[in-house]
Design a protein that fits this description.
With about 130 residues, the chain is of the alpha+beta class. The protein has one domain (about 5-125): RelE-like (YaeB-like fold). The protein is built from four helices and five strands; from the N terminus they run αβααββββα. Strands 1-5-4-3-2 form a five-stranded mixed sheet. A hairpin with an 8-residue loop joins β2 (about 65) and β3 (about 75).
Length: about 130
């Protein structure tokens, strides 16, 4: 997926008060999947963005995570065998930004370990 396609997607979401953000690392994770898998992953990420309250279950799509990933949520489509870790953040202008920190295999908590290792660089990149 090209940056221009992500920009178009974000423009659509922005009109609905939503935005999806990738960090450098999470975008690298995303690009590591085949094109058809990337479409499915993107659909899973934006699903909470088009629901009424995309923050956390039971009203939203993702399940909340525990320390050290408190404030983050996970999407875990069993049929794909992956985990998507993101942080839903409500901005001052009312837009809800879904910030993806890691996308990885459903392999004994591997993606959660990766996400925990990325927290400081994630916050530096997105909390500007």
């Amino acid at each position: 997926m090209k940056d221009s396609e992500i920009d178009q997607l974000n423009e659509f979401l922005r009109k609905n008060g939503r935005k999806v953000c990738f960090t450098e690392n999470s975008f690298r994770d995303f690009k590591s999947f085949q094109k058809n898998q990337r479409r499915d992953i993107l659909a899973l990420i934006i699903k909470p963005a088009v629901e009424k309250n995309p923050l956390l279950k039971p009203d939203g799509h993702g399940e909340p995570l525990q320390s050290p990933l408190t404030g983050f949520a996970k999407i875990k489509p069993k049929q794909m065998g992956i985990r998507i870790v993101y942080r839903p953040k409500k901005l001052e202008n009312g837009v809800i930004r879904l910030e993806v920190i890691a996308i990885g295999p459903r392999d004994k908590d591997e993606v959660y370990r990766i996400a925990a290792e990325r927290i400081s660089s994630f916050k530096a990149e997105l909390d500007k």
